[in-house]
Amino acid sequence: MSVIELEDVIKRYQSGVETVEALKGVDFSADRGEMVTVIGPSGSGKSTMLNMIGLLDTPTEGHVHLDARDVTDFSEDELTEERRTGIGFVFQDFHLLPMLTAVENVELPSMWNTSVDRHDRAVELLRRVGLGDRLDHTPDQLSGGQQQRVAVARSLINEPDILLADEPTGNLDQDTGQTILEELTRLKEDENVAIVAVTHDDQMLDYTDTTVRIVDGVIQEVAQP
Amino acid sequence: MAWRNLGRNRTRTVLAALGIVIGVISIASLGMAGAALQQQATSDLGSIGGDVTVASGADSASDGVTRAQVETLRDIVSDAEVVPQKSNSTTLTARNGEEARMSVTGVTNAAALYNLTNGDAPNRLASGALISNGTAETLDLELGDPVEYDGQIYRISGFLEESGGFGGGGGQLVLPISALSEQDGYDTVTVVAGNSDAATALADVIDSQFNEEDDEELRVSTFGSLDSLETFLNTLNYALLAIGAISLVVASVAILNVMLMSTVERRGEIGVLRAVGIRRGEVLRMILTEAALMGAVGGLIGALGSLLVGLVMFQLLTGDAMAVFNWSSSQYLLFGFAFAVVASVLSGVYPAWKAANDRPVDALRS
Ligand SMILES: Nc1ncnc2c1ncn2[C@@H]1O[C@H](COP(=O)(O)OP(=O)(O)O)[C@@H](O)[C@H]1O
Ligand SMILES: [Mg+2]
């Protein structure tokens, strides 16, 4: 069963007098343990679609289902709660907090929740992405690939159902990108999460279960190699 | 977390905190300056503020206040002390040739009027003399030394406390009233009412008893001007505090600016926090905590600085540095600190609210 589903989603942006239709009726779904790669030219609506899946933005028309629940009309606070418990994010430029150590960055999403102590899990996740000896390093003491691995660990701290990655290898060289992709594939299975990744990176297609091509706000093809 | 966020842009944080420190120092120091002035002025005036001075009026036929009038006064004022005095002036010459010109007051109940630094003020001064301690020093006089007035010798039985600011520089010699007996009436009669309110009331009673619209038998005066002095000091106090408050407003604007800049700068980061599920209220609290911390640290340093300023100020104005710890002045340290924290948190509200309600998509795109 799909953990996330977009149903005929339309997204319009109003910029001045002009209206841009970034998504023109998109149907999409992803399952646990599945890695879906979204490809398409720049400006085709990939990030917009990822924002819908990640509950960072709401559709102009259509519905979003999370775990078979319609979350389209959730309030901002309810959406925040869903993001906290169910969704992990990995960004192109890592977005780690510079004054926190690696392990603190990983704990960040659970930092305000005093009822559970995620410290052990944070350490454990960092070990799994190969940073067991870098726990107390701050981001400026880590390479780009190491920072992105910290970000991957952070995205998993709250045991999400979905992991979203917008060009996770975009700022990394080929080899480092590859290790990140291997990491994601392994974690996908270990943690049983659905991964939705946007990419320009062809090597990513070697790791993916499903490839979705989007052009001009419309899904052109869905390929399962 | 809040600490480390503040630590990130140290110069900016330090500058903002400095603004608070200066604001607190100015409001607390100015408040304490007011308290010091007030304390100084009231202690100067305290003793004479409660007195009514009665002298012969413009339309009086007699020379001075008559014995009969003094008796009537005693009847009217019941429990207040009525102290008739005669006055003159003289020049004393010391053994070493030093001369001092001074006023001479003849009085029986010296205890009611004077504070002594040394020796006793008798309430029936019969033979001794009291002399201002400053003059005694100039003339090198000690207890028991003789002074001569009008051909008579009096032995010094006490030293008068110099009456600070008011009453003027000249020395004073207090003698038994018999020393100035050549005149019949008294030059002045002091009614010791105790405090300035009672003095004003008594003055009214005396005035209405003796005087008519066009017939002033006795001239009755009080230091009622003390009231207006107090009002003036209060006004001065408020003016000082207002100046201090303005500097705190300026400090608040500085904090507002720092908090706004730092939230604008961290927009992306705050977007990440929101994306990973940190609630709006939590972002709000985080930024307000930063502001409060900045205010508390700035306020604390400011309060310590003000304490130093206050110690110096009280030492200079009242000669008692420790008086700064009296509640009347130390309260301004607390006010200054509280104001710093409150002003900081208030200036943090808008930036915090703005940052917390920024949509994460927009924050992340920028
Ligand atoms: N917040 C926005 N306001 C206005 N237009 C936007 C906004 N976000 C995206 N767009 C527009 O929507 C289209 C799709 O953008 P995006 O999803 O970022 O594309 P991609 O990620 O595939 O490059 C673009 O034309 C872009 O200009
Ligand atoms: Mg994009």
Automatic annotation (TrEMBL), chain A:
It comes from the Archaea. GO terms for molecular function: ATP binding; ATP hydrolysis activity; transmembrane transporter activity. InterPro entries: AAA+_ATPase, ABC_transporter-like_ATP-bd, ABC_transporter-like_CS, ABC_transpr_LolD-like, MacB-like_ATP-bd, P-loop_NTPase. SMART domains: AAA. Transmembrane segments: none annotated. Residues 4-225 form the ABC transporter domain. One of its GO terms (cellular component) is membrane protein complex. CDD domains: ABC_MJ0796_LolCDE_FtsE. It comes from Haloferax prahovense (strain DSM 18310 / JCM 13924 / TL6). This is ABC transporter ATP-binding protein. PROSITE patterns: ABC_TRANSPORTER_1, ABC_TRANSPORTER_2. Keywords: ATP-binding, Nucleotide-binding, Transport.
